[in-house]
Input
Amino acid sequence: MDTRALTAVVPMVPRMSEDPAQLIPELADVSAALFKVTGNGSVPRSTIGLVQLRAGQIVGSTYLTVLHTGFLRGGGALEEQITSVASWQDSPYFTAAERAALALVEAVLQPVPDGERVSDTLYAEVARYYDAKALATLMFAIGQVNFFIAVALVAKPVPGRSFSDPWN
Output
C-alpha cells in the first residue's frame, strides 16, 4: 500500500478525471431516491447529517467530511456539534438519540475482533430512541453514505467544491 509523505502537498484535482455521474447517468436517479428515503421525516435531517459526517471521518474521506460539514452548517446545526462529532462520546452537545445514531454508524463501519458489529445490546439501545420506520431510515442513511464512500475514496472528488459538480 502506498503512503504519502506527511509533508506532501495533496493535489486539488480529482483522481478520476471523468465525473462518474456523467459516465453513469443512472446515478442521478439512485442518488435522488436515496435522498428521498432518508428525508422521509422520521429522523431529523441534522441527525442524518451527523451520522454521515461521522462516516466520512471514520473512512478518512476529506471530501465526505467537508461535504457533510457544509450540509450541517447550511441546515443550522450547532458549530459545537459539528466540530465535536469525532469525539462525540465525550461531547455534551448531543442528545441520547443522536448518541445512539452515532454509535450505530461506528458499529457498522468499524470492524470488531470478535462478535457482531451491531450487537443486540446496541440495537436495543438505538430502538429505545427510534421507532421501526426511523430505525430503517437510519440504516438507509448509513447505506446512503456507504454508497458514496467508494466514489469518495476511489475517484477522489475535490473537497469543498459544489456537491453537484466536484469535478470542475
Q: What stands out?
A: Helices lie at 20-23, 27-38, 45-59, 62-74, 79-83, 96-109, 120-129, 132-155. The radius of gyration is 17 Å.
